[in-house]
Every structure is written in structure tokens, then in C-alpha cells.
């Protein structure tokens, strides 16, 4: 894990790469994902403006005496990541170091943390101070998973567009609180 940590980037670098890929796509995937990069960057910006760490969660973090690091496997274009990653970065800011590993740059890390056989992101890897994996979380909070299960159970009654809309409304209203809480419980 230490090698992956060393290959990881800061949140600022993550944003810079996302903006660069939007403005100057270097691959067909980046061209095809243009609208997702735009949406992702808009959502990240909204989360950064609106997210304020909850006092009770900050106290809980302090009480856990967590001395480890947070490694997040992500990509800017991902809808779940764009709503979760900035909140996590802001929550742990000044307390625990957070770095981001770009999933599509090297699949060997995500392949160790598959979700039901898929490369779903974001994936949060909680590392102790010696880079041992303590736990992992992702790709979305429990409520987001429930919405996904509802969609998968009956896509005709609950179409994909409705699922995506409901999920983004949830993210906008929740502002990262559930994701932070679920990760706190894993520390």
C-alpha cells in the first residue's frame, strides 16, 4: 500500500487533472466523458462551497485517536465521487492525510477492492500509520446503495434517470454527512 500511496496525488492535483482532461482531452475516453467531467467538476465545486464538517463528527474523529491515512480511489467524472470525495477531503483536512489514486491510471489497486465484481468508485481505503489496510468503504453511502437496489430490482418502475436524479438530490441535501459517518464507524 505504501507504493500506491506514493503514486497517489493531492486533491488539488486531482482537480487540476480533471480540468485539464475536460479542456484538452488526451484520449477517446476523455472525449466521450466530457459531459461527465463537466458535471463532476460542478458537483465538486458545489460540495466544496456547501460542505461544513459536523461538530459531532469532528469530536468522534478526535475520540478515535486515528493516526492513519485515507487513500481514495477515484476519478473526477464519477457522480458518486464528485459528491463524496470533496466532503471527505475537507472533513479530514488538518487531521489525517488524504490522497487520491486515479483508478484508470492503474487498475491493480481497484482490483483489490472490487464491489460485487465491479471497479466502482470512489473506494476509500483506511490505512494505519504503517500503511496496512485497516478497512475500506465505498462506492456510496447506505442510502445510495438502497436507491441502486431499488433501481436494479425493477428498472421499469424505477428507471435509471429517476434513480440518478434521486441519488444526486440525496447527495446535494446530505452534503457528505452519511459518507463521513460510515467511514468514522470503520476507523
Automatic annotation (TrEMBL):
Pfam families: Thioredoxin_9. InterPro entries: Thioredoxin-like_sf (IPR036249). It comes from the Bacteria. This is Thioredoxin-like protein.
